[in-house]
Specification:
Layout (H helix, E strand, L loop, with lengths): L2 H15 L1 H10 L4 H21 L2 H18 L7 H24 L1 E2 L2 E2 L1 H12 L15 E2 L2 E2 H7 L22 H4 L16 H5 L15 H25 L8 H22 E3 L7 H12 L3 E6 L4 E3 H22 L3 H6 L6 E10 L2 E8 L6 H10 L5 H6 L2 H4 L24 H10 L3 E7 L3 E9 L4 E9 L2 E6 L3 E7 L7 E4 L2 E6 L2 E7 H4 L11 E8 L2 E7 L1 E9 L13 E6 L5 E5 L1 H8 L7 H7 L4 H4 L8 E7 L5 E5 L3 E7 L5 E3 L2 E6 L2 E7 L12 E7 L4 E5 L2 E8 L3 E4 L5 E7 L2 E6 L1 H10 L4
Parallel strand pairs: 6-8, 13-22, 17-19, 24-34, 28-30
Antiparallel strand pairs: 1-4, 2-3, 5-7, 8-9, 9-11, 10-11, 12-13, 12-20, 14-18, 15-16, 16-17, 18-19, 21-22, 23-24, 23-31, 25-29, 26-27, 27-28, 29-30, 32-33, 33-34
Helix pairs in contact: 1-3, 1-5, 2-3, 2-5, 3-4, 4-5, 4-6, 5-6, 10-11, 12-13, 13-18, 20-21
Length: 754
């Protein structure tokens, strides 16, 4: 079914669902002007859309009813039983036509002349008024195919279908007949049947199969599904340690249902990117007229789908870049012709799926950007020294355009040139985990390339192990897995100090995750695994010791202390409750320098692609903060990303040995210290404990109560004088102490056996 027709049927079904009751209520309370206006708007909307789709019969009936309702609104007609009966008859006709459209996509033939004549007869009683011209055409309308009407207009706006000519109707119905109950067969009297009766026991309409849901409900549903996925992962983790468990099949069923539910919820949030493009053709047209330029906008890939939240975030950046292309990029016709170009310029907007991302490109065939001018402006503004500007590659020079306040425009227009906008474009794109790149050739045009994730909340990832730690790698960047045994060691070659693996006659650069993260060196003669990752056109093998499984993981933000590290893209909570880091393959490629000269531009961009998932759970500059009571006057806080687990231990589980408080936790002894030295651990049963963990040790900090988790700007405004506290910040309107987790982990390290 044509998408326009489907949307029309859905909206009309919603509007008509309560129209009968509104009309009947209007009959009981004729003075209810608000209700009358609502009925009029519904019929008016249907009539207007009918013209767009070429539904001649429906338009005539709706227009006739609209005229009567308009006369009621203006007070020219008064509400009475017979008039309301005719309006209800028109509504029933509309419902029958909509039902036929849903089943056949064709407007059914029918003769509505008697019904429309009665409508016009009511209008003829108004002194000085004549029936509207649009409803004075013939009433016998043949069946009209909506698909044919759409095809005739090239898939765009279909012209209103014209009914065959017929004798014009005049207001010659006797006045007595106007006030008498109408007796047209099929509409009034005991044989009258509604559109609902005609449907009988058939399946529900398109309107019945759709439901409008607030986006806040969908967002909450997505959060709940994310938590459900974490719970599912934890159960799967527990089941791996059990053999012949009676819970195996139920957990497997839960896994399947959770995966299906996750996919379904994701679909509810996906929308075509064309929804963010609807205003752009009008924008380009207005800019063309105001600037005296001839500009054509070409749009490709409007059906590409992505998350609604991302769709909203890119609308303003797209608008700004289109304005820039029209104002700065495309030249005036005379200048284009002098340069050997067509007088009319072209702006091309294209979207496509690329792996697990959506790539949007905005390009123009205009004058391009002068790298020399950008260098000169950068030196003038103090962004670069003169010697730096001369040696800096063009690709890096063009990145300066995204600096705040930077502009190469010689004059300021009402469209652009003030140096504001491109920095906002970059910050908005990076806030949703995307990247933006600009390339330009002077005299040939400019291209801005935006790479954004499909969704923010949940991704599929491979869980790997290296140096005794676990990490998650987003599957969108993984090509394949290779097991390197002793027999394959001969395929590892060393070139200029770098190691390569000969994979199907190609040399694959190798990067050791252990070495990169300083977790120790891997023995080259040992058996290990290669995760073959791809960044742009570059492939490399990431050396890991273990490959565990794949999971749908919930992306969480990183703490402020590590969010600048380009190796990581975020963190997640595993099935056993641990917090592990999500690796960013692009950032790893940039750090390891595995790119080739041919793909240097991709590698330059990789240094910023660590932001792709890093800010996925925190738009703007906020992060999740755990608030708790440690027995001090002020509340205490810690970034949630630094917390491994929140536990409650019964008093009996606390043991004292060697002067330290210990609990048996996950098969090992964990040291527990009080967040406040004056805290009596024995005064509460059970006792809340915040568990912190670094790569070598686990530590528990006992507190009085866990208060809340909030999203806040964690800006320290005072330094602390007490050990274990970093400083004081304002959180939720209160002065709050931010604790130093390293202080407590160092206490744990002091008690460990070397």
């Amino acid at each position: 079914m044509d998408e326009l027709l489907r949307d029309f049927l859905t909206e009309s079904s919603e509007n008509l669902a309560k129209l009968d009751n509104d009309i009947l209520e209007l009959e009981r309370t004729p003075g209810d002007l608000a209700r009358l206006n609502g009925v009029f708007r519904t019929i008016h909307t249907i009539k207007g859309t009918c013209g767009f789709l070429g539904l001649a019969r429906l338009e005539l009936v709706a227009h006739a009813a609209e005229n009567v309702l308009d006369a009621l609104r203006s007070g020219k007609l008064q509400v009475q039983r017979e008039l309301i009966g005719d309006v209800l008859a028109a509504v029933d006709t509309i419902k029958l036509v909509l039902l036929a459209l849903e089943e056949t996509e064709t407007e059914p033939a029918g003769d509505d002349e008697p019904l429309i004549a009665r409508m016009e007869a009511w209008l003829s009683t108004v002194p000085g008024d004549r029936p509207a011209e649009a409803s004075r055409t013939a009433r016998a309308v043949p069946a009209i195919s909506v698909a044919a009407a759409s095809a005739a207009s090239g898939g765009a706006q279909a012209p209103t279908a014209t009914a065959p000519a017929g004798p014009p109707l005049t207001s010659e119905i006797p006045a007595a007949q106007v006030n008498a109950p109408a007796t047209v067969s099929g509409w009034d009297g005991p044989d009258r049947r509604s559109a609902t009766d005609e449907r009988g026991d058939k399946h529900g309409s398109i309107g019945d199969s759709t439901l409008r849901v607030g986006v806040d409900v969908l967002d909450k549903l997505m959060n709940l599904v994310g938590e459900l996925a974490l719970g599912r992962n934890e159960l799967l983790q527990l089941m791996t340690a059990l053999e012949d468990s009676p819970f195996t099949k139920p957990v497997q069923q839960l896994d399947r249902v959770t995966t299906d539910l996750l996919e379904a919820v994701m679909k509810t949030r996906m929308q075509p990117i064309g929804n963010a493009w609807t205003k752009l053709p009008r924008l380009v047209r207005d800019l063309s007229q105001s600037s005296g330029k001839e500009i054509a906008l070409q749009m490709h890939g409007a059906e590409t789908e992505l998350d609604r939240q991302i769709l909203q975030a890119i609308q303003d950046p797209l608008t700004h870049m289109i304005r820039n292309s029209a104002d700065h990029g495309v030249e005036l016709p005379a200048a284009r012709i002098a340069a050997g170009k067509p007088g009319a310029g072209t702006i091309r907007l294209a979207a496509r799926h690329e792996g697990g991302h959506v790539v949007v490109e905005i390009s123009d065939d205009g004058a391009g950007i002068s790298a020399a001018r950008v260098r000169r402006k950068a030196v003038e503004r103090g962004l670069l020294r003169a010697d730096q500007a001369e040696t800096l590659p063009d690709a890096q020079v063009f990145r300066l355009i995204f600096e705040p306040g930077f502009s190469t425009a010689e004059t300021v227009t009402n469209v652009s040139g003030r140096g504001v906008g491109m920095d906002v474009v970059r910050s908005n794109i990076e806030a949703i985990g995307g990247t933006v790149e600009l390339s330009s050739h002077e005299g040939r045009g400019t291209t801005v390339r935006i790479k954004i994730p499909l969704t923010l909340a949940i991704i599929s990832a491979l869980i790997v192990g290296a140096g005794g730690e676990s990490f998650a790698i987003p599957q969108i960047g993984i090509v394949e897995l290779v097991r390197v045994t002793e027999e394959q060691h001969a395929l590892v070659e060393q070139v200029h100090g770098a190691h390569f693996y000969r994979l199907r006659e190609t040399l694959l650069p190798l990067v050791s995750l252990r070495s990169l993260l300083r977790l120790g060196e891997i023995q080259r003669d040992a058996t290990y695994n290669l995760v073959v990752c791809q960044v742009g056109e570059v492939r490399f093998g990431l050396i890991v010791e273990e490959v565990f499984d794949t999971q749908e993981i919930v992306v969480k933000p990183m703490g402020r202390l590590v969010k600048h590290l380009q190796t990581y893209a975020g963190c997640t909570i595993t099935g056993d409750g641990r917090v592990i880091m999500i690796l960013d393959s692009a950032g790893i490629a940039a750090m390891a320098g595995v790119a080739t000269t041919a793909t240097r531009e991709d590698t330059d961009a990789a240094s910023r692609e660590a932001e792709r998932l890093r800010q996925s759970a925190q738009l703007a500059q906020t992060e999740s903060v755990l608030l708790f009571d440690a027995g001090y006057t002020a509340l205490q806080a810690v970034p949630l990303s630094l917390v491994a687990r929140l536990e409650e231990f019964p008093l009996a589980s606390f043991e004292e040995a060697d002067g330290h408080c210990l609990v048996q936790y996950r098969g090992a002894l964990m040291t527990v210290v009080a967040a406040n030295p004056e805290l009596d651990l024995g005064s509460m049963d059970p006792r809340p404990v915040i568990v912190f963990r670094d790569r070598t040790r686990t530590m528990g900090v006992a507190v009085n109560a866990i208060h809340d988790i909030v999203e806040e700007h964690l800006n320290l405004q005072r330094r602390a004088s007490r050990p274990g506290v970093l400083g004081v910040a304002v959180i939720s309107g209160r002065a709050t102490e931010v604790i130093d987790t390293d202080h407590y982990l160092r206490q744990a390290a002091a008690t460990e056996v070397a």
